Structure formats: structure tokens, C-alpha cells
Amino acid sequence: MLASQYKAIAKTIFGAEEILAHDLTALGATDVQILNRAVSFTANKELLYKANLYLATALRIIIPIHEFKARNEDELYEGIQKVTWQKYFTEHDTFAIDSVVGSDYFNHSQYVSLKTKDAIADQFRERCEGVRPSVDLRHPTVRIHLHILGDVCSVALDSSGESLHKRGYRQGGQHEAPLNEVLAATLVRLTGWDGQSNFADPMCGSGTIVTEAGLFAMNIAPGLLRDYFGFKNWPDFDAALWEKLCAEARERINHDWEYTLSGSDMSEKYVELAMYAAEKTGIDECVKLKTKRFEENTPPPPKGVAIFNPPYGERLMGADRAILDLYKTIGDTLKNKYKGYDVWVLTSNMEAIKHIGLRPSRKISLYNGSLECKFLKFSIYEGSLKAKYQAQGE
């Protein structure tokens, strides 16, 4: 189906590219190059499987197979037909098209997907005595990605099948605004936390951040919980190799991790969902979850990293008194209860963040969905900052 080595692209979110490149290199990838919300690398079958299994900050792993220029539907149709589709699946298989369009020549991604589907189906009819593969939008044999930027059309195979943020640990009735798992994993890594201290999420909701922290700390491959990957439907799927890699991943889990993951939320319902995720992933042995308001909870001593993901109040234009008071309470809580901790806050509300009353030592730009956010670091020292410098002889 594919050559022994080929170019692959790991898609990700804005701000996660360097982490993803580092993790790909650690898996043994070569020719690693950072792109916009993506990282390219040279892959083989084993590395492709590993990338889907291990990469916590990747959304999809795609394999480019063709690129051409098109400025109208006829040129699009002709370009798609230049691919020999029987190399990748048969007339008895199924396929699906995902299109992303940023072009003055093509206005609607659904129309582009339809024309691409027609071109592929017509090729099979011509070459397979009138028989063509069916469309399966859920679990097709092959999922095809078409990306059009200007007049450049890029065609790729999706080895993941569906977004890798779908880990398999969520339960129904989620938090009304659950954090994407890939964003949560990125937040954990951006803090610089190495798993050698405690971790706290005092506003944990349904537990995405604390769960991703647990996967990282205990060295649990996030893909172990998933049953479905696109490559498992491919004609050349190597089931024995996949089982071997999964067995190796299970052997690498650190069941002896000695620190504490702490999470709390004022909603008992959300804490129950967080516990479900912890049990599903196997991090429950290290997690302490409580139904408490964040200002009533104390993080595990003596030190660690904490991430706050408070409501942003973006629909209220940052001026709602309750939101401003909430951020002030966060600041008071940090000063009183988080000495020895590096605390990070994710927010899109730059007016409200001023009410924390502390100066951030670092700011990182990210997106939570379409919302532009800042990820801000506050180091809470024992005693005054002046005393810290004096102790260091500065």
C-alpha cells in the first residue's frame, strides 16, 4: 500500500509544535520539521503506529500522497483522478473525504468533498467493471484528507481515522465546556513539569487536565484506550506488530509513581466524571479528587505545579463583577495556599487576569477553540521575593 519509508505529517494545535517535534524525535523519527500547527517527519509502518499510540499532543497523523494545482472544479476532478486509488483500497472497501478549504477558487468544503468523491468513484467504475467503493463517514477503510490553500491542493491519507484527542476515557454528561485533550496535554507540558513533584488542578471540571497530567507522569500511552485507528482498516495492517507495540507500551507504565495528582471542583457531578476518567485510564491510584471550591482546597505539600482553567467570561466582555471577583479570589488563594508552587492560569480575559494581583513571570499565547488565550505563570515563593533573592545571594 505504501513504500517502506514515506513522509508523514502530525497535525496539532497552535503552540504545541515544538513539544510534538521533541516527542517525535524521541520516538525515533528523522527529518523532523516544524510547520504551522503541524510537524513533518519520515515514517515507516512501525513509527506510524507508534506516533498514533504515544503522541499526546498530536491531533492526526496524515500521509501526503499527491499535490496539484486547481482553480476550478474540472481541474480538481482531473487532479484527483491522477492518483491510482487502487493502490490504497479496493472497489469493495469504503472511503470518506474530509476537506479543508482556504481559497478564492473554492467556497464550500462540502462541495469540494463531493467532487473528490465523484472523481474517485468514477475511476473505480472505469477500472472495475462498473463497481465502486461505498462511502462510510464513520469508520471507512480509508479516510482521505484534501487541503486546498489558494490553488494548491494537497491529498493525504489519514492514519488516525478520527482525531487523536478522542482518547476513550470520557463519559456522557461532560462539562458544558470540556477542554480538548490535546490542549490539556499541551498545557501540562508547557509548564515544564517533569512529573517529579505534585500536580494540582483546583478547578478540574470533568478532569481533562489532571487526567492528561496523570498519563504523562505514569508514562501511559494515550492511544492505549482507543479501539479504532484508521490504519487498522488498511489492507497492509500488521496486527502482530500493533499488538507487540501495545504490549511494550503497557510494560512501560510507571505504576510506582510516588507523587500526588490533586483535583477539585464545586460540582459533585463533574468530580464523578473526573473519577471515571481516572479509573478508565488507570491513574486513580495516584489521584485525589474532592468536591470542593478551589479556595477551600489545599494542594498537596510541599511543592508542585498547578493549572487553573477558570471561566473566561468572554461573553460578558470582561466587565462582569462576578468574573472580576472570581479572579481576585484566585489571586488571594494563590498567595495564601500555593507557596512553593508554580501556578499557571489559562484565560482569554486579560481584564479579569489583572485582578489576580500578581505579576506573571511568563506568558504563552494559545487558542482554546477559536478563543485566543494566554497561559500565564505565577511563581508563589515562600516568604517575599526579596527574601528569596537574599537567600540566593543576589
TrEMBL record:
Gene3D superfamilies: 3.30.2130.30, Vaccinia Virus protein VP39. InterPro entries: DNA_methylase_N6_adenine_CS (IPR002052), RlmKL-like_Mtase (IPR000241), RlmL_1st (IPR054170), SAM-dependent_MTases_sf (IPR029063), THUMP_dom (IPR004114). The keyword ATP-binding does not apply. It comes from the Bacteria. SMART domains: THUMP (SM00981). PROSITE patterns: N6_MTASE, THUMP. SUPFAM superfamilies: S-adenosyl-L-methionine-dependent methyltransferases. Residues 47-159 form the THUMP domain. Pfam families: RlmL_1st, THUMP, UPF0020. This is Putative N6-adenine-specific DNA methylase. The keyword Transferase applies. Keywords: Methyltransferase, RNA-binding, Transferase. GO terms for molecular function: RNA binding; rRNA (guanine-N2-)-methyltransferase activity; rRNA (guanine-N7-)-methyltransferase activity. It comes from Flexibacter flexilis DSM 6793.
